[in-house]
Amino acid sequence: MSDSSAFPEMPLPALLECLLFVSGEPASAAHLATVLGIPAGEVEKGLDELEEELKTRGLRLQRHLGRFQLTTAPEVAELVEEFLGLEATTHLSRAALETLAIIAYQQPVTRPQVDSVRGVNSDGVMKSLLSKGLLEEVGRAEGPGRPILYGTTPDFLRHFGLAGLSELPPLALPEVEGDVEVSHLKG
Question: Is the pTM of this model over 0.90?
Answer without folding.
Answer: no
